[in-house]
Amino acid sequence: MKKEILIGFLVAIVATLIGSYIFIELFSKFNFNRSLELIKEGDLGGKVLMLGALANFFVFFVFLKKKQIYRARGVLIETFLVAFLVLLLNILG
């Protein structure tokens, strides 16, 4: 059970990173490295991370469709942690 939750958690981290990358590539006029610099300068890391976490919806529903409930729980845990991290970034930043 814990292994399945961990797998879901790790898949969600990868999905969030890929989602963030795709968002940056699709909506930025600049190359990826310059976009990251602009995100840092503008304190937009939390917003980009949250948009990247939208990819977790897809992963979550795939796990539910396959009846892999514990992996879906891992995705939810990671999504809540990302939301908490974004909240901290907004409060501290």
Question: Summarize this, please?
Answer:
The chain is mainly α and 93 residues long. It is built from 5 helices and no strands.
First and last CA, distance:
37 Å
The main pleated sheet reads as: none
The number of helical runs is 5
Give the strand content.
Answer: under 5%
Average of pLDDT: 94
Order of helices and strands: HHHHH
Topology:
Blueprint lengths: L1 H26 L4 H10 L3 H8 L2 H11 L3 H24 L1
Would you mind describing this structure in some detail?
The chain is mainly alpha-helical and 93 residues long. Helix content is 85%, strand content 0%.
Can you tag this structure with a few keywords?
elongated; mainly alpha; 93 residues
